[in-house]
Predict the 3D structure of the following.
Amino acid sequence: MPNQHTLLTFNLLPVGSNISTWWNFGSMLLTCLLLQTLTGFFLAIHYTANINLAFSSIIHITRDVPHGWIMQNLHAIGASMFFICAYIHIARGLYYGSYLNKEVWLSGTALLLLLMATAFFGYVLPWGQMSFWAATVITNLLTSVPYLGTSLTTWLWGGFSINDPTLTRFFALHLILPFTIISMSSLHVMLLHNEGSSNPLGTNSNTDKIPFHPYHTYKDMLMLTIMITLLFTIMSFTPDIFNDPENFSKANPMVTPQHIKPEWYFLFAYGILRSIPNKLGGTLALLMSVTILITMPFTHTSYTRSMTFRPMAQLMFWTLIATFITITWTATKPVEPPFIIIGQITSTMYFMFFFTNPLFGWIENKIMTFC
């Protein structure tokens, strides 16, 4: 006869027995968030939000502050690790139909937008050459907004050019937004526990559930160990693998880099932006490249939730992954042939996945009906 403690344990966070390692990236993201918050707090103590001192303060943290180089590298490399886990987490949601949990998916999309905004503001803070010019290019996109564009840009800059007020505002926003992310993450987890997790088969798992602990906490611990080991390995041997060489020079408004580009995790959106000649059209496409994820729960037409048994959908999914990688690679190249046409083709293919998803679901339904 099971005791009360055993019954309580087996009723605590029950999950499907067949969820795989791909479901561990949620806990990995929460760990990344904790790591970024702690290291960011340490760096904020020593950082100076002044265009004449910001670059020097980063050098001071790296060279003079005890263990400062560890915190600085953990924060910088941790941001890349954060986005790697986030993109894999989203890809898993697309493949296994997790977006049908609408509230969880929509809160997750909001989290991605907040994460990208926070990362953008943080990228400007070192006040390196690429940080300055990337901020100049991206903030100038606001000028394409009809009627309000110039006023919005002036407000964001705190003047008529990127200067001290801009850096102060970006620093303040970079400090505030993580608390919003923490709050939204708490809501995201609460909604997840309320609606339940999906599973690889896309079936109702209510008939076969097991407690989250210890069966899945052990998986989480293993994946977290691998992630932290990888993080410290990169930090120890190749700490500059994600950095642009231009950003090791102090920002100089009088010298324009030969090729301006943001951090790697923004490159897919930047590649879509620059593939459209029209400024307003490019800005809208940039926003849609992320916000189009919101449409997924409302455009799903297939009888089957997961892509496990949908070969046509699988082909579309892996085409999307290849397209995402190609756009990212193209965005690192100069704006010249053949990279212009490659970027335009892949950008079109990226959006085609979302627009054709309902059609392919309908075709698969017809095939299943006939079979």
In short: The chain has two domains: 14-257, 261-370. The longest helix spans residues 164-195. The radius of gyration is 22 Å.
